[in-house]
């Protein structure tokens, strides 16, 4: 029974072990990372800001209605007031509606109409109640200031730049999380191999000690040599303990990246890493020139795109002030 006890323990550990591939670890980290959650919300806010800025070109319908009753005393016999009153009573109702459309050129087109009704009890009023209507259209196009840009176009450009920056920041955070998971994953793989190597050196040292003991018993080697081999065995066992501690630290670092919270079962289960297999017909990529690699990095680095977005936003903010001053390059 004692022989089968280690086997049963290993079987129990294998049942509750957590198999983990590199893609699974990356997906778990991208799903639970708090920084990515914040960056996703920032992208949603930037998208909403773009929609809000584009709404400036939606037609605006406005309506207004006013009802007024007033009595204005007049110190004259010709006030037209009924008998017993100081002044005539005037009731007026005014309603209007307008449709305003902003054009991409900065022009504003307005179409408006209004209806009013006036009623009075004055003796001099020939027609009461009286109705009046109005209908008109107006076009305003800036010729100097705001011709090149206006607050609406500036807000749209800023919103789009902010959206690009938010996407670049999200991409940068995702790359950083993915790189951190890959480093932690392969660190665990390397730490386990290091443990195996250290344990194999302990076995080699123990074999050398046994060989030394046999030679001492045979009288072909001095007994003092046994102390040296024993010390070597203990030294290598100490290296194994250090290597195992490094392995535990590496596994905990990987768990910290992929665990959803403190109660995640992955903290209590041993990790069984499944490194991705390299295809048999995989070809080694040909190294590109240094200049092409540098240009590729410049074109695809999200942090550089984020910095470029900041510069674009500053340019949008500076452009209106620059438009008020004469261009020094134009003569």
Keywords:
alpha+beta; 4-stranded antiparallel sheet; rod-shaped
Enumerate the strands of the largest sheet in spatial order, edge to edge or round the barrel: 2-3-4-5
Secondary structural class: alpha+beta
Cα separation of the termini: 101 Å
Radius of gyration (CA) equals: 42 Å
Helix content class: 40-55%
How many H/I helices?
7
Give the oligomeric state of the chains in this entry, treating copies of one chain as homo and distinct chains as hetero: single chain
List the helices and strands in order.
Answer: HEHHEEEEHHEHH
Total number of beta strands: 6
| Mean pLDDT level | 81
Q: Outline, from the CA principal axes?
A: rod-shaped
Major β-sheet, in short? 4 strands, antiparallel
Residue runs with pLDDT of under 50 for 5 or more positions: 1-15, 324-331
Strand fraction? 15-25%
Can you tell me about this structure?
The chain has 331 residues and is α+β, with helices and mostly antiparallel strands. A 4-stranded antiparallel β-sheet has the order 2-3-4-5, with no helix packed on it. The protein has a two-stranded parallel ribbon with strand order 1-6. Strand 3 and strand 4 form a beta hairpin. Helix 2 packs across helix 4 and helix 4 runs antiparallel to helix 7. The longest helix is centred in the middle third of the chain and has 68 residues.
Compact overview of the structure:
With 331 residues, the protein is an alpha+beta fold.
């Amino acid at each position: 029974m004692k022989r089968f006890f280690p086997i049963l323990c290993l079987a129990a550990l294998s049942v509750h072990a957590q198999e983990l591939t590199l893609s699974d670890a990356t997906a778990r980290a991208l799903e639970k990372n708090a920084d990515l959650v914040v960056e996703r919300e920032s992208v949603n806010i930037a998208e909403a800001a773009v929609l809000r800025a584009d709404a400036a070109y939606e037609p605006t319908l406005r309506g207004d209605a006013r009802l007024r009753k007033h009595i204005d005393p007049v110190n004259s016999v010709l006030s037209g007031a009924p008998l017993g009153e100081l002044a005539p009573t005037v009731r007026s109702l005014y309603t209007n509606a307008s449709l305003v459309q902003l054009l991409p050129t900065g022009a504003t087109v307005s179409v408006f109409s209004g209806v009013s009704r006036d009623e009075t009890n004055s003796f001099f009023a020939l027609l009461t109640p009286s109705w009046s209507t109005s209908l008109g259209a107006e076009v305003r196009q800036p010729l100097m200031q705001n011709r090149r840009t206006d607050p609406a176009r500036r807000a749209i450009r800023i919103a789009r730049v902010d959206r690009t920056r938010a996407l670049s920041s999200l991409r940068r955070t995702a790359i950083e999380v993915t790189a951190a998971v890959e480093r932690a994953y392969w660190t665990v793989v390397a730490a386990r191999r290091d443990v195996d190597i250290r344990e194999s050196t302990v076995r080699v040292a123990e074999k050398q000690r046994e060989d030394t003991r046999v030679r001492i018993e045979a009288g072909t080697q001095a007994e003092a040599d046994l102390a040296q081999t024993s010390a070597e065995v203990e030294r290598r066992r100490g290296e194994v303990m250090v290597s195992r501690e490094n392995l535990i630290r590496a596994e905990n670092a990987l768990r910290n990246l992929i665990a959803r919270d403190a109660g995640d079962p992955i903290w209590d289960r041993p990790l069984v890493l499944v490194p991705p297999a390299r295809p048999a017909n995989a070809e080694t990529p040909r190294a590109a020139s240094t200049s092409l690699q540098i240009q590729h990095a410049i074109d695809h680095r999200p942090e550089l795109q984020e910095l470029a977005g900041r510069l674009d936003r500053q340019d949008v903010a500076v452009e209106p002030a620059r438009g008020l001053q004469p261009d020094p390059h134009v003569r």
